[in-house]
Structure formats: structure tokens, C-alpha cells
Write a structure and sequence with these properties.
The protein has 342 residues and is α/β, with parallel strands linked by helices. It is built from 13 helices and eight strands. Strand 7, helix 11 and strand 8 form a beta-alpha-beta unit.
Length: 342
């Protein structure tokens, strides 16, 4: 039965011919797309972004896929494979959506627990790389939750070992995800592997962590206190629950507990300096960079994108893709290196 509140696919004037679903799994995923996007007549090869997909659609789609499959379905599995045909394979496969043989770039999220770059970012990368967006586990369904940055870093290294069992590891991070990235670099050697290249956008440390790194004894004690970290988890949980009751939680379809533990973990982890064979790439916006990063990344390449921190990726995804593709390909930087203060 057609929902009169939905628009018709033909009204979208998509550039791809309609392909009808054939299997029960394909029909189920097409139905989910129609519900999420409020569009009637979605085809098997209609793209998530062409349908107007954004982060809210991605949350709803990943939650719906988890319900259809009975397994967790991470937003990283939408990204550059976002058609019903590709996603339907998840319902019959024993693992994730199949890859295409290209080398991986693993991207870490910020404080939200996941990230979904605009389609232009994927378009600028997919001719050379396959993007895997690392995501906090158990956002949609009950499952393992991680209390500390170290535990989460080990989990993400497990994911990398499973997705890409061998070969050079290419790692990128957005915002606070840089803290996790540094810990992964420090830990991966114990697995007989190494991070070949690390690109970071506007890495940020909590104020209490910066004070601890500067030698403040009280701040060091706070960062090392498990009791305070657990108390902070309770506070973040209470705050998120209050936001949800007021309708102010933009991630209302996701579970609160793993997000609260992530937020608390950021303030109770003091990162260690790292050195890679190839200097890390640090991409920064107009937001000033903390002096702590001179200590953490004493040797690095640095690029500047002239935009505010919060909207740089959304407004200039092509610039991000160009910088990262050149860096991960081992080529020279594509943008002129910034020599000012930003």
C-alpha cells in the first residue's frame, strides 16, 4: 500500500534506471529505504546520497538494518556502498558487506562515536582506496562496551586485523578521535604490525588532559582515577537521558551507554608521543592547535583548511579527500602548506 505522505521516485529525477528487487532480502532492504527516505518505488541501485541521505538517515538506516538482520550494522557499511543491492548482501552474508580489493583507509570518529563524511569525500577517495569508518560498538544493539581509550583502541585493532589481516595500515581521525589513533599507533607493534601513515583533522585534547601533560599533579590524579571516570559516565548518562526527554538528543535512535563511556574515557586518558617512519599529516582548521601536539607529534606534516572546525568537512569535503588521497598514496601534498596562524 502506497503511503500518501511519501514522494514518488520519479519525482526525484535520478540518473539511474529503476531496478526492481528480486529476493526477499532485497525487498526488505528496499522497503527500509522507502520508509527512511519517505520515497515510494526505491530501486535496487538507488544510492543513499542521491536519495538525500545525511547522518540522520544513516542512523535510521543502520538501526533498521540491525533489526532486519539481528546483528549490529555499523554506519561504516553504508558509506561508499550505499545501495539496497549492496546492503541486502549483509542479510545473507555471515560477515560485512563485501569489499572490492582496494587498499583500506580506516577512519576514526570524534566524540559522537561515528562519522559519515559527505558523498564528495567518498567520491574523491574511492578510485584509490576503500573507506572503513570505525564506529563505537553497540550503539544500536546490546553488546560489548568499552570503558577506556585503551580498550577501545584494542577493539579497533581487532577490527583492522579482521578487515585487513596484512599489509600497511592507513589510519585517519577526526577531532577527538586523534586520541584513540595515537593509542592505536602505540599498541599495534605488539601485534607485529605498524601504522604506515596517520592523518588527523583538528585533533583535540580535553583541558584536564592538557594540564596533566603540562605536569599538573592534580590533573594527573584526576585523569588516572577510575572512580571519577565511572562517576563521569553516570553524569553523561543522566545528561543524555534528560536531553532525550526534551527531544534535544540528535542521536535518539542510538543507545546512550556506549556514548557516555566514550565521552568519559576521553577525559581520563593521557596520550603518549608517537613517531612513525613517515611523518603524520595534521590537517587543521581555523581553530588554534594546542601546544600539546608539539609534544605528541614532534615531527609532522601540516596543512590548513580555511574553515571553522565544526563545518570544514561538510563545506570542503573535496579538499579533505585530495589531501588524504595524496598523503596515503605517498605523493606530495596537494594544498599549499600554511605558514600563518590560521
Amino acid at each position: 500500500m502506497t503511503d500518501t505522505s511519501h514522494i514518488k521516485r520519479c519525482d526525484l529525477q535520478l540518473d539511474i534506471d529503476y531496478a526492481a528487487p528480486e529476493t526477499p532480502e532485497q525487498r526488505a532492504v528496499v522497503g527500509l529505504f522507502e520508509t527512511v527516505f519517505e520515497v515510494d518505488g526505491v530501486g535496487l541501485d538507488d544510492d543513499f546520497f542521491d536519495l538525500g541521505g545525511d547522518s540522520l538517515h544513516a542512523e535510521a538506516l543502520s538501526t533498521g538494518m540491525a533489526k532486519l538482520s539481528g546483528r549490529d550494522f555499523q554506519i561504516s557499511q553504508i558509506g561508499d556502498t550505499a545501495t539496497p543491492r549492496r546492503l541486502a548482501s549483509f542479510l545473507t552474508a555471515t560477515d560485512t558487506v563485501a569489499g572490492d580489493g582496494k587498499p583500506y583507509v580506516f577512519i576514526l570518529h570524534g566524540k559522537g562515536g561515528y562519522t559519515l563524511p559527505p558523498r564528495e569525500f567518498f567520491a574523491g577517495m574511492v578510485d584509490r582506496f576503500r573507506i572503513h569508518l570505525l564506529e563505537v560498538p553497540s550503539l544500536r544493539t546490546e553488546g560489548p562496551e568499552y570503558e577506556t581509550i585503551g580498550a577501545l583502541a584494542e577493539h579497533y585493532l581487532d577490527v583492522i586485523d579482521e578487515v585487513q589481516p596484512e599489509g600497511p595500515v592507513r589510519l585517519a581521525s577526526f577531532c577527538a578521535g586523534g586520541i584513540i589513533g595515537l593509542d592505536m599507533v602505540a599498541r599495534i607493534g605488539a601485534r607485529g604490525r605498524a601504522v604506515e601513515s596517520l592523518a588527523m583533522y583538528d585533533p583535540r585534547l580535553p583541558d584536564i588532559v592538557e594540564k596533566a601533560m603540562a605536569g599538573d599533579g592534580f590533573a594527573t590524579w584526576v585523569c588516572g582515577s577510575d572512580a571519577l571516570r565511572r562517576l563521569k559516565v553516570k553524569w553523561f548518562t543522566f545528561r543524555k537521558q534528560r536531553q532525550r526527554r526534551k527531544g534535544a538528543d540528535g542521536m535518539s535512535s542510538f543507545r546512550i551507554s556506549p556514548r557516555a563511556k566514550l565521552l568519559a574515557a576521553y577525559s581520563h586518558h593521557i596520550p603518549r608521543p608517537v613517531q612513525l617512519d613517515r611523518p603524520p599529516l595534521l590537517i587543521r582548521s581555523r581553530r588554534p592547535l594546542s601546544a600539546a601536539w608539539d609534544q605528541l607529534l614532534p615531527v609532522r606534516e601540516e596543512e590548513f583548511i580555511d574553515s571553522h572546525h565544526s563545518n570544514a568537512l561538510m563545506r570542503q569535503p573535496e579538499a579533505f579527500a585530495a589531501l588524504m588521497k595524496r598523503y596515503f598514496s605517498g605523493e606530495d601534498a596537494v594544498l599549499e602548506r600554511d605558514t600563518g596562524t590560521g
